[in-house]
Amino acid sequence: MSNVTLIIAAGVIVMISPILMLTSQGRPKAGQVALVISAPWGPNAAQIAEKSGVQEIAPERAPLGVLVALDSDQSVDRLYSNGAWLVINGKEVLELCSI
To answer: In terms of Cα–Cα distance, which of 52, 88, 46 is closest to 72?
Structure first.
């Protein structure tokens, strides 16, 4: 039974490692690209970005996320106050997605 537990734990670690890499980075700064992730209920990420006054930069939207250009150091605070779950560095997301 312990082998099954180890296999399941290893599988979970492998599956969440990209998410851990993205969330463990520092807070994005002004002039950088950020990925805004929203809750499945409530306002979507595009609405949060629009309400926060930041510009979307990608031609496509994900169901729970949108890429934006941060114009000031307060952009991240505005995104969180308008309902964003996470605001993470978008450069690595662009590299992962090959955009």
So the answer is: 52
DSSP string, 46-69: HHHHHHHT-EE--SS--SSEEEEE
Q: Is 33 helix (H, G, I), strand (E, B) or coil?
A: strand
Over 18-29, what HEC string results?
HHHHHHCCCCCC
Q: Which fold has domain 27-97?
A: Alpha-Beta Plaits (3.30.70)
CB 8 within 8 Å of CB 56: no
| Segment 38-83, tens digit of pLDDT | 888 888 889 999 999 999 887 777 778 899 999 988 999 999 999 9
- pTM of the entire predicted model: 0.73
